[in-house]
Every structure is written in structure tokens, then in C-alpha cells.
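Input record (one chain):
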Amino acid sequence: MRLTVLGSGAACPPAGGVCSGYLLEDRGCRVLLDCGHGVAPALLQRRPDADLDHIIISHMHADHFIDVIPLRFRLTRDMSGLAAPRVQLHLPPGGIATFAEVLAAVCFPPDFLSSVFIIDEYAPGAEIPLGDGLTARFAEGIHYIPGYAVRIDGSHSLVYTGDTAPSDNIGALAQGADLMLSEATLDEPEEGPVRGHLTARQAADLAAAANVQRLILTHFWFDTDREAVCKEAQARFAGTVAAAYDGMQLDLQGASRP
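The corresponding structure, as predicted from the sequence alone:
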């Protein structure tokens, strides 16, 4: 299982940086987790044909989905679409309606995406097959809008938190995973009833409680000190900790899962 970080930024990443986008390759299957600002060209640098099998969107904030639109033009510039769509686009509940509003706002036809992608909406708790023994499962987190974590099980296991505050649901989903890819957006914990993000310390606590093996922190603002973020997490989590950066690549090795 190989993870490539196409983009590790929050809504305003560093200069030249890319928002959320993570390419997962395993058993011949290619899955894109989120597709925020700048992800489409970053993907084309590594896979010029954009030969994906699945795109999974964690939630409908622009820094996690908006580059699905330019990516569609890489698959075809024909506004009538493809005769036989192949790439599956998995959206959170309500995602189809949100995209309909976005397409109307930018004056694209209603079938602009559905004529190129095979689109569905996943359900919390559902498991969907991705191909050759790969599966995806979902759990709702705590965000300002509905947001979901996804766990991919194949030769190894990876959990991507999406955007979330501390969440028991995501902790349960992540139990025993080889790798947790966790947002670490905040310098200090949010106070009050409205929450939607994690600090590095909270991400580390979530990883420790879930007994995962590795933790990669991501979703950073333009001015985040990534070295400091790692140190904060390492003080709370005994496993391996790293801060994601655009272009980072990690191969999960060791004993494979059946």
C-alpha cells in the first residue's frame, strides 16, 4: 500500500501549496481521497492520464472537493461526457445536491459530472468494495458541516480522518489501523459547543486510543510550524509520527493482511 500526499494544506496553504488530496495505491487500485484546490495538477504531475479508479470526498467544503471540476476536464473536454464512465466518485450524504448548486453557480450543465463519473453517496457505517480485496468504510466525525472519515483496508489499513473535532466514532473506525492520516489544523483546542478541527495533541490522543501504528499529521495552514506540530504529537503518541508535506510518499511495508 502506497500513500502519496498530493496536498497537505488547509483552506489557505503555504505559497505554492495544495489543499487536501491523497493518492492511495494498493493491489492495482488507485483511490484519491479528497480533491481540494490544486490537487488536479498535482495528480497529473504523477499520473498524467489521471487513471484513477475511485475518488472519495470526505465532506463538501471547497478545499476538499473543488478540483473534481478541473479533473473532469482531464478525463474529457467534451461537454457531452464519456460514452462509458469508469471512475467512481463517492460523495458524502447530500454531496450530489451540493454539486448541483455549484455547477449551476458556475454555469455548467447539470450532467457535467455525471456524464463522466459514476457517482454515488456513501452512508455512515457502510462498507463499499473498491476492487481486488480493497474496501472502504466510513464514520461520521464532528465538523461544521457533516464530515466523514474513511478507512481503507487492503494489504494494509489506512484511516483518513477528514476534518473533525475529537470523535469517538472515528476512534472506533481507526482501531488497530496501520496508519492514521489525521488533520491537525489548530494550534489550540476549540472551546464552546461548535467544534470542527483537531490540534496535533488531540490527533495524537485519538491515534493512541485507537492503537494505530503510525500517525501522519496534515491539513496545515500557511504559517504552521510542522516541526513543532510533530513534537507536540510525539509527546502524546508512542508510535511513529510525521508531518505531511506536498509530494510526500510512504510505502506501508511489513506483514501484509490477508
